[in-house]
Amino acid sequence: MPALFVAITVLALFACGFIFYSRYLSQKVYRLDPTYSTPAHRYNDGVDFVPTNKHVLFGHHFTSVAGAAPIVGPAIAVFWGWLPALLWIVIGTIVAAGVHDMGALVLSVRHRARGIGTLTKDVIGARAGTLFLILIFFLLTLVNAVFSVVIGNLLVANPGAVIPIFGEIPIAMLIGYYVYKKRGAALVPSLLGVAALYLLIWVGQAAPIEITGLAEALGVEQTRNVWIVILFVYTFIASRIPVWVLLQPRDYINSHQLFIALAVVLLGVGVGWNTMVAPAINAVPEDSPSIFPFLFITIACGAISGFHCLVSSGTTAKQLDKETDARYVGYGGAIGEGTLALCSVLAVGAGVAATQAEWDGLYPDFSTASGGAVGNFVDGVASFANNLGIPLDYAVIFAAVVVISFAATTMDTGVRLQRYVVQEIAQLAGWRRLAGNLTVAGLIAVAAPLALALIPGGGDAGYAFGVLWQLFGTTNQLLAGLALAVIAVWVLKRRANPLAMLVPLVFLVAMTSWALITNLRNFIDAGEWVLAPLDAVIFLLAIWMIVEAARALAEAWSTRKGPARNAPSEDLEEEGAAK
Questions:
Q1: Given this model, what pLDDT does residue 575 score?
Q2: pTM above 0.70, yes or no
Q3: Residue 29 sits in a domain of what CATH number?
Q4: What pLDDT is recorded for position 310?
Q5: N or C: which end of the chain has fewer CB within 10 A?
Q6: DSSP 449-483
């Protein structure tokens, strides 16, 4: 089948989802109010709380939630066939991710932009809030550790990408200064920033930066580990400075890369008339993981991801200018990530190989599919770019820059969110000095994932991939299900229809529980005495959280009768007022 037909069909479905379903959610379920005074205005401090143009905020939100996961997950999941992968991406994005992302954003905005962990305590109960914060800290530690490994590996494999990736930092800071100090418009400077970034690829090609000698001089066996340390030093600094200085303008630049990458993919498959050489449904080896439930765990970001509720209720809620912008930023951001996942499927299904025989050589088993996912995506996008006359060596670095940029912005946001979580935990524990000390909280936020990323073991992939990555997908999807439960309780309390949350909630809880039980049995059989206890603990936390959420839902359901609560001032915990 021509890949262009597949792309147009998926994009048309996404457009229908945004036009019709997000409108229903905005008007009938979340009841967005254009006159509502958002926390960005009420608590404007010029650091974290900053009223932000919705297009700029979309850039921050999208690139923060995207990262490398919607590239890696679909690139692995095509192992079961491109059709089931795309079906889950489309249905998950429209029916689950948009509901989850916009709901978490609106819920946080209506409760002083507090994080989802604290909101769980308020909406469901104190025990549930504490458990949620523990899960969040664990998930953020994994996200930041694994993404640092992804970036480190890519910088080692693509030394020509070093200059453009690090050159983007001063470019973004200049744009941030111009937009927020000189009150200039962001669009033109950000487009110039993208142009400068791609010009730097030529510089990077001419002057690739290798740091193998530095690693040897420091006595470090793996060059990647030096990059990991550099990345965490950078993210510690980035998490301390105001969002307008670097986070927002860099994310806005990178949001344009989605549209550029999409244009390269669509024009590339159109000019090259690439076909889907990957099988629609693949006959996988008998010892492979089952498509149920593991397809729905492998593709998390790109369909629905618990990490998104951390961004929605973490940085994005503090920058929302108007409550009605939540539809564009939250649901639109989910559509953006689904589009990136589509690009990943096209790249590995139609771009990386010319025949099914070649493709079969890249996807002979699940282990090979997992290990080669990022490389297959980079080569696939480079092939599409080459169809447009772009030199292949430049195209490879371009694709690598796209992946690294998205992963780096997620790390930027992830470390900032980790600091918020540390402060929230300290607040709950009564440690006021830690809760108010940004430096110490930031150091803790950096130290945990840095240690995890540098732990030896797990083969060449490193401990983060070789051992703990297997739990990331289930933990991530579990968090999404639990966030949907919190949103559903809040919606019920406002006497609106929670069905939009309950359907994906039941599905996610079923898939994650199934995966946790299956993995626990496999870990025990394989003698994995690190993974098995962690899996068991996560499963027990999941059961506990499900019970707490079910109790809260039942209580909210029993009080659902009465007039609908439309006015913002009627929300529980609400301090805002109409403008």
A1: 42
A2: yes
A3: 1.20.1740.10
A4: 87
A5: C
A6: HHHHHH---SGGG-HIIIIIHHHHHHHHHHHHHHH
| CA separation for the pair 71, 424 (Å, rounded) | 31
Residue pair 573/112 in contact (Cβ under 8 Å)? The answer is yes
Query: Is residue 575 included in any domain, yes or no?
Result: no
User: Residue 281 in contact with residue 80, Cβ under 8 Å?
Assistant: yes
Q: Three-class SS string for 151-213?
A: HHHHHHHCHHHHHHHHHHHHHHHHHHHHHHHCCCCCHHHHHHHHHHHHHHHHHHHHCCCCCHH
Question: Looking at residue 182, what is its pLDDT?
Answer: 81
Amino acid 562: pLDDT? 57
Residue from 300, 286, 381, 244 nearest 69 by CA? 300
Buried b (16+ CB within 10 A) or exposed e, 407-442: bbbbbbbbbbbbbbbbbbbbebeeeeebbebeebbb
Q: Is the residue at 577 inside a domain?
A: no
Residue 25 lies in a domain: yes
Token digits for 458?
């797990």
In the chain (579 residues long), the average pLDDT of successive 10-residue segments reads 94 98 97 96 90 89 81 94 98 97 97 88 81 82 86 91 95 91 85 94 94 93 92 91 85 84 90 96 93 92 91 92 97 94 96 95 92 90 96 93 86 87 86 89 92 71 57 84 92 92 94 91 84 84 82 83 52 43
In a domain, 284, yes or no: no
What per-residue confidence (pLDDT) applies to 578? 41
Burial class for 292, CB neighbours closer than 10 Å (0-12, 13-18, 19+):
middle
Class of residue 175 by CB neighbours under 10 A (exposed 0-12, middle 13-18, buried 19+): buried
Three-state helix/strand/coil letters over 341-375: HHHHHHHHHHHCCCCHHHHHHHCCCHHHHHHCHHH
Q: Please check whether residue 133 is in contact with residue 145, taking contact to mean a CB–CB distance below 8 angstroms.
A: no
Backbone angles phi, psi at 308, to 5 degrees: -65, -35
DSSP-assigned beta bridge partners for residue 320 = 52
Residue ranges making up the domain that contains 219: 3-275+289-570
Distance CA 74, CA 305 (A): 13
State residue 568's pLDDT score: 47
Residue 482 has what pLDDT? Answer: 86
Predicted pLDDT at 573? 44
Cβ contacts of 79 within 8 Å, gap of 6 or more? 282, 284, 288, 363, 366, 369
Number of compact structural domains in the chain: 1
Burial of 181-194, coded b for 16+ CB within 10 Å and e otherwise, reads eeeeebeebbeebb
